[in-house]
Every structure is written in structure tokens, then in C-alpha cells.
Write a structure and sequence with these properties.
With 193 residues, this protein is α+β, with helices and mostly antiparallel strands. It has 2 domains: 33 residues; 152 residues, 3-Layer(aba) Sandwich (Glutaredoxin), CATH 3.40.30. Helices cover 39% and strands 15% of the residues. The strands form 2 sheets. The protein has a 4-stranded mixed β-sheet with strand order 4-3-5-6, with helices on one face. The longest helix has 32 residues. The termini are far apart.
């Protein structure tokens, strides 16, 4: 009887340890698999874009609109993109019509507006929802991030993503692309491996 209890106890301990290892392994895998660059999107030209292609780059994700008081930020975003693109940085624009219907145009109209008025060369994705029932899975991930989440409250909010796809900053609409703190965060992220 004692022998049986000892064997039962050893089996139980072995199974418990294996169970804990399995749980730790699963949560580590889950944690590693999901990041801001693990989503697939459509470009404004309706082409498939796998954001994992941006791994190794620092990315500033911005929900944009053509008829907003913050629309002139396109100019600053383009300057940021041009300044740091050779160092491994990219701005990505995500047009959305969630705030005051300020992005009513078609993809062709949006792209034309951006190029003609602001000389935009950074990647633009197709129009998405950044909040509400039809919220893009990417923005669901960004807004629920434990450290830098929070609802997108207006156009031109910015999420800064490091080379590994981790969200390292969330900047409200009023933060200009030329803001020294934003630039410093980009420069730091570019230096980090």
C-alpha cells in the first residue's frame, strides 16, 4: 500500500510539473506570436500586405483623414518618414472615416489627395475602422495593449512599434510629428536591437 501511494504521488508530481511546463510553453508561444506586425492588411491599391515584412523596422502607425483639422500633419509625417527611412523607419497611414466622416473619399481619391497636397510616399493602407463593431483586428490589438493601449479618440493618433513588433508608444492627435519626444522615441527605437 505504501509503495502504491509513493508511486501515485510521484506520478502526480511528474504530471503537475509537465502541466506547468506545458502552460508556460503555451503562454510564451502565445505571447511571442502576437504583436503589431502579425496582421495582414490591404494596401490602398488593394494589394495584400503582410505587416511581418516590417519586422526589423521601427514603424509609426497613424489613422489618417483628408478633411480633419489635423490633416496638415501629413506634411510632418512625410518629413519624419523621409528623415528616418534610410535608418529602418516607416510611417504607415491607415485612412479611417470613424471621426466626423472626415475621410469620405475612395482609395483613389485619398491617395491622389495625399500625393498632390503633401507629397506622401510612405505606405498607405486601405480604409479601415479603428473603433466600433467593425474595428480592424490590428487596431483591436493596438487599443487593448496593456502598456500603450487606449481608445483612438480622433484622427492622427500614432502608435510607435519597435523592430520586434512591440508597441512602445501611443501619441494622441495633438502630438505633432515634429514633437521632440516623439522624435527621441523613434531615434531610441532605431538604435535598440
Amino acid at each position: 500500500m505504501y509503495q502504491l501511494n509513493r508511486i501515485t504521488r510521484q506520478c502526480f508530481l511528474t504530471l503537475s510539473v509537465l502541466g506547468l511546463l506545458s502552460i508556460n510553453h503555451m503562454s510564451a508561444d502565445h505571447h511571442n506570436e502576437k504583436n503589431a506586425l502579425s496582421f495582414k492588411m490591404k494596401s490602398i491599391q488593394d494589394k495584400d500586405v503582410d505587416l511581418k515584412n516590417y519586422k526589423g523596422k521601427v514603424v509609426l502607425m497613424v489613422n489618417v483623414a483628408s478633411k480633419c483639422g489635423y490633416t496638415p500633419q501629413y506634411d510632418g509625417l512625410q518629413k519624419l518618414h523621409s528623415q528616418f527611412k534610410d535608418d529602418g523607419f516607416s510611417v504607415i497611414g491607415f485612412p479611417c472615416n470613424n471621426f466626423g466622416a472626415q475621410e469620405p473619399g475612395s482609395h483613389t481619391e485619398i491617395l491622389s489627395f495625399c500625393k498632390e497636397n503633401y507629397g506622401v510616399t510612405f505606405p498607405m493602407m486601405g480604409k479601415i475602422d479603428v473603433k466600433g463593431e467593425k474595428q480592424s483586428p490590428l487596431y483591436k490589438y493596438l487599443t487593448t495593449h496593456p502598456d500603450h493601449g487606449g481608445d483612438v479618440r480622433w484622427n492622427f493618433e500614432k502608435f510607435l512599434v519597435d523592430k520586434k513588433g512591440q508597441v512602445i508608444g501611443h501619441y494622441k492627435s495633438g502630438v505633432s510629428p515634429s514633437d521632440p519626444k516623439l522624435k527621441a522615441a523613434i531615434e531610441k527605437a532605431l538604435k535598440d536591437s
